[in-house]
Amino acid sequence: MNYFTRNVTRTAWIAAAAMGCTSAANAVEIEYWQYIYDSRVQAVDQLIEKFEAENPDITVKHVTFPYADYQTRVVAANMAGKGPDVLQMFYGWTDSFVNGKVLQPLPADMFPTDKIEAEFFPIVTAMRRGDDYYGLPTAVRSLALFYNKTLFAEAGIDSPPKTLDELVETAKALTKKDGGGNYTTVGMTLDMAGQDHQWWREVLVRQFGGTPYSEDASTVTYDDAAGVAATQWYTDLATKHQVGQPGFMDEGQAAFRAGRAAMTIDGTFRLGSFREIDGFEWGVAELPANAEGLRSNYASYFANGIGAGAEGEELQAAAKFLAYLSSPEAMQLWLEVVGELPARPEVAMTEANLADPVYGPFLKALEYAHTTTFVDEQAQRQVTMDMANRVFLQGQAVEASVAEAAAAEQAIIDRAR
Amino acid sequence: MAMTQPSPQSGPRLSMRTRRAIWVWAFLALPVLFYSVIRFYPTIDAFRLSFTNWNLLSPPEYVGVQNYRDMFASAEFWQVFRNTFAYLIIGTPISLLLSFTVAYFLDRIRFGHGFLRALYFLPYITTASAMGWVWRWFYQPAPTGVINSVLGSLGMGQLDFLRSTTWALPSIMVTAIWAGLGFQIIILMAGLRSIPQTYYEAARIDGVGEFAILRKITLPLLKPTTVFLVVFSSIGFLRIFDQVYNMTTNDPGGPLGSTKPLVLMIYQTAFNSYQMGAAAAQTVVLFTILLAISLLQLWILRTR
């Protein structure tokens, strides 16, 4: 082939490619699934727009479902072979999604394990099975103590409690009752169905010297002196110190919003709802440490994973999109639109963020936070709720209640394995 | 006859009766097909699934009667079983007694009759979840809950309602009875109206007392209506879900499982824990109970 013919052939190829381009530009379409939550949907729409601008050959179709049937939809679609290419999922679903072949491992060439572990907060390891990673988060959540600044000022208290003992004292000073002995304002909300079960499991149990589970998460280990002490301390808030009442105003967050609770423990996801409060000023503080200064926190996240059905071009496009979703740029946008914390320390731990009175306490927690490996989050939450209720409502001894809870939770874990 | 005189039409000649049957079945085919696919097939399949271990993700695996064995061995199941029957055994008679009393007297008044009837019927057409939430707030401790606030202002103690393992179930049952009352009243009134006035006139001429009229004429002649309502309301209480779920969303069926009915347990087993086999086994139990109770009631209240 001489130079001329080679050139002609090449031109012909380019022309053919260019002609094909009108349709080839949209050749790869991938589906992204997440549940409906207004700000999350907006954030993903914005991210898709930017991603498509950078990758004109890929179109991302954004599909959403109500949270209540999100998991069922994913599983059903997967069975029918019509699952998403990239999907958002709670880290706690990883085991069932990996075992059920909903997910495939992230391609190791694009997402090397050592690089992930160097660049993300340590809690990302909850997405690792063996040597493979099955997903990466855009944003993470942690817990903090919300306090009602107006009530604090009225009582002449100028700073939120830093230790558990201070928490009790502060709560006592802020609790108000009417003539009939009914609470009108609680010092501290008690709501196991809210975030208290996470606080108890990953924070209080550790602060009283125990661990909630064994290293490999296969055994419940809180049925010991530490677990009992943590539960005793928690239930004492209502029974001994009388700074709160389980079920007061139905939910802890409702009581806080209504200005009838001086303190409550909740997560980053509550910021949006609390920002609508205009009756009083509120602040955020790190969860109180124990007397020795030990702090802990519970962090969780939704990760993005690649569906088992994606292959070839779609797999490549999916991997590209997932890389973009977990890029520093996407994390910054997520923080601004959704208000959740970036999953990379380099984006999260900036001076501006750490100095932020709202984000600061949540961010500091990420360095010492734990994630629970749930096998059935709702059932496990129920166990903790029942444990507290047996003490509150039936007057069961704390030791017996903790032992019963440990046995029940162990049965749930055993069943899932 | 058709052989000797061929019909001018093509095709075999069918008798009027057969043709009508074909038409009827042609029209019935669609609903029958629809019901077979979306109702009967899943029902029958539930029996098969109840012998498997299936989490939706991996294919069902046959485990024999393991699901049933686990279920009958679990304390939670028996508590739920007791709760379900508490809703049925307390709820059905009380709701029937109340609705009969209201219907009986409402039938006798003329002034404000339509208005009162509408008031009684209103809860029935209200969304169960909305009602559940309203009642949930009624039952809150002071200062939120209306009932406790009133009690508090009268200097009385607080009632725990939904926060008590003893009172949570009756508290929820009250709302369920209230919600179903309107429907039962309407049906009972229709039943009362259908009793011929001549019986009453004859009895009054003979000087029979009001109570005897009620016992000897009204109640026996109302029996078909009563049978229908007993069966209908029993099935309703056995399937109770909306009120319980909406009034206890933070701790579904709580506190400590004291309000959890079978349907809520099935829902949680299937769609929170994804144990489809175990949930199917629970469904089979519910199906059997519903069938047995309905047949029993039809037999007890049968017309002799």
From TrEMBL, chain A:
Keywords from the named record: Signal, Transport
Lyase found in the keyword field: no
Family statement drawn from the similarity comment of this UniProt entry: Belongs to the bacterial solute-binding protein 1 family.
Protein name: Extracellular solute-binding protein
Gene3D superfamilies: Periplasmic binding protein-like II
Originating organism: Paracoccus benzoatiresistens
Transport among keywords: yes
Superkingdom of the organism of origin: Bacteria
Signal sequence range: 1-27
InterPro entries (alphabetical): SBP
Automatic annotation (TrEMBL), chain B:
Residue ranges of domain ABC transmembrane type-1 in the record: 81-297
Keyword field: Cell membrane, Membrane, Transmembrane, Transmembrane helix, Transport
InterPro entries given in the database record: ABC_transporter_permease, MetI-like, MetI-like_sf
Ranges that cross the membrane: 21-41, 85-106, 118-138, 167-190, 221-241, 279-301
Keyword DNA repair: no
Localization (cell): Cell membrane
Pfam families: BPD_transp_1
Topological relation to the membrane, as annotated: Multi-pass membrane protein
Similarity field: Belongs to the binding-protein-dependent transport system permease family.
Protein name: Sugar ABC transporter permease
